[in-house]
Amino acid sequence: MRKINSFLKSNSLQANRVVQFPFDDIHTFAWGEKAFRIFVDANNTNSIQDGKSWETAFTSLQQALNYLPDNMMYYNAFILVAGGNYSLPTITSKKNGIIFLEYIGDTWNNANDPDFLTLGKTFTSNPALLQQSSSIELGGRNFEIHFRSRNPAWIYVYNGWRVKIMPNSTFTDAFTCHSDVFILVTNMVLDATDATYTNFRTLFRFINPTSSLCGLLIDSFSVIGRGNDATDEWKGIIAIHDNTNVIRLDIGSGYFPGWASGKTSPNSKKFIFNNLKKFFTMAPVASSTVPRMNIDLTSIDFTAGDTGQTQIKMSINQYHSGGKLKIDDSLVDLTDNSGKITELNKTNSGTVTCYIGKGIKYNTNIPVFSTNNSVPADSLLSNKDVTFWIDETNNKLMFKLKYNSGTVKSGELAIT
After folding, report:
1. Side-chain half-sphere exposure of 96, counting CA atoms within 13 A
2. pLDDT digits (tens, 9 = 90+) for 98-115
3. Are 364 and 339 in contact (CB under 8 A)?
4. Where does 152-288 have alpha helices with state H?
5. Phi-psi map region of 142: left, alpha, beta (phi>0 left; psi -120 to 50 alpha)
């Protein structure tokens, strides 16, 4: 210790300013990445609980998060979670890294995996159940949180992460997201069926992001909602609020086409909604602009339940200035009761695809299109897409379409 103190003194270093980082806890994975690896098992009864193996796993997510330094120095963290009952604590101080919350499915039994070290362990059949009685705050600087689930073939599985809103809860939002945190959900089920809660409205609420790093990507998702609130509708699974002009939002636009077959699932749909009134809300605030919003809701299984509705509602009350929207008009109702969808297909770069139906209107009855001033590339069109642009020099309205076979054709209409 005297040698350390002499070194600090001779180099004019203060002991309380020296950065201490747990480099000894960094694990080298089979694919070459160096990252933290922490094991969590709520059912672990071992007297030793250091998070370094399944046999000595932590029993709570809070212990795993406390184990990580606040500044992860761009080292990622893989938190391997066995089935069981948990609660997710507030995460706001972490920065410079990605936390992968990996649910290890009940069918995982790979004795030869050098990184997960299951060694023939058979996990409980329960999912990773987050029993929430209060709101969770997610934030941080240059920081990401990924909810993922795996089976033996490393395929995402149905019902891995399950968020349960507990009885008599009074909070309104399950996750309040801010700063520049990015959240990836490749598998999650929200269970909000308990009739005793009074205020719960939103799963993910975004407010006051500080940079374009802030955002949300939902690839596959299921929700079981009460849906029979007599006083107010849900604000939606995702709610965008003040000062969101930098957020990035991608829903259903990921690589995976639907639920994996590694575990029993209702079907191959990406989104399964039961008894839910509204899916998405962009709050009617002047500063609520989403410059990059990509939504694909063409793969929905919707059960009306107590609501008696036959469609999911979406409310987009301000500006969408980039990205892509794809819906099935028989499954999604965009009219809501706002009538304020003023710019749905305007984009600063690229194109926006809209499946126009009776729900997209302006001033309640007149569809409005915003066009580009240059020809969009063929690659920007999906099959059965149609796009328009203006040739102002020659006074022509130009259009291009792509057949289901992939054939692209174009045409023009003279403007007088």
Report:
1. 7
2. 999 988 865 555 656 678
3. yes
4. none
5. left
